[in-house]
Amino acid sequence: MEAFQETLALIGFAIVGFLFWYFSRRTCPSCKNTNFTELERQHLKTYQKHLSGSDYQQIDEYKVNFKCDECNHTWTDRVKEAVRLD
Ligand SMILES: [Zn+2]
Question: How far apart are CA 59 and CA 26, in angstroms?
Fold first, then answer.
């Protein structure tokens, strides 16, 4: 019975992981294609996000212009990238 519950939990995690990936991936707003090219990026700001204790993560925020490889639609999106401070 325990093994059955563990299997269910694993399947649950897999589904949640898949949904998170599915809804967080970047797609063309026009045709929902995932193949696109980054044309240019403009740095907006850099800020520090508090993680825990004395741990901080540096985040760079960009305004990025994308162009869809399928329908040539262009759009602008904000992209946040974590910078590892080692
Ligand atoms: Zn498109």
Answer: 19
**Centroid of ligand 1 to alpha carbon of 38 (angstroms):** 13
Cα(74) to centroid(ligand 1), Å? 8
Tens of pLDDT, residues 11-28: 999 999 999 988 888 899
Domain count of the fold of the chain: 1
Put simply, whether the predicted model's pTM sits higher than 0.70 gets the answer: no
Q: How far apart are CA 5 and CA 12, in angstroms?
A: 10
Range of the domain at 30: 2-83
Q: Which segments in the chain show pLDDT lower than 70?
A: 1, 85-86
